[in-house]
Amino acid sequence: KAGVTQTPRYLIKTRGQQVTLSCSPISGHRSVSWYQQTPGQGLQFLFEYFSETQRNKGNFPGRFSGRQFSNSRSEMNVSTLELGDSALYLCASSLALTGELFFGEGSRLTVL
Amino acid sequence: DQQVKQNSPSLSVQEGRISILNCDYTNSMFDYFLWYKKYPAEGPTFLISISSIKDKNEDGRFTVFLNKSAKHLSLHIVPSQPGDSAVYFCAALNTGFQKLVFGTGTRLLVSP
Question: Which chain A residues are closer than 8 Å to B6 by Cβ?
Answer without folding.
Answer: 42
